[in-house]
Design brief:
About 90% of the residues lie in helices and about 0% in strands. With about 100 residues, the protein is an all-alpha fold.
């Protein structure tokens, strides 16, 4: 069980780090836009760095979305497992064969 707790903690830490990095990247993109508008950088510089930051940001957002789906599915599976285990005697006594097989 300790391995699962460590993995969950690591996942939470990574997610916080990714969220912080997404915010930082958005801030850098905003600064680039401001510097471009104020003619402090060229259009080529603006496009180069904006593309770089947007690509990294997009990748982090996609990874973050995937972890949300996995976490949601894991939570549902754990809840179903706990429900089955807590009601195993009811399932065993009152269910027909097909329902018992479905719950296993």
């Amino acid at each position: 069980m300790k391995g699962l707790e460590e993995k969950l903690q690591e996942s939470i830490t990574n997610k916080k780090h990714d969220s912080k990095r997404i915010t930082e990247l958005q801030g850098q993109i905003d600064k680039l836009e401001e510097r471009f508008v104020l003619n402090e950088i060229t259009k080529e510089q603006f496009e180069k760095f904006t593309q770089k930051y947007e690509q990294e940001r997009s990748q982090l957002v996609n990874e973050n979305d995937k972890s949300l789906i996995i976490s949601s599915n894991l939570e549902k599976a754990v809840e179903k497992g706990l429900d089955i285990v807590q009601n195993i005697s009811k399932i065993g006594c009152s269910s027909d064969y097909a329902k018992k097989q479905n719950n296993i």
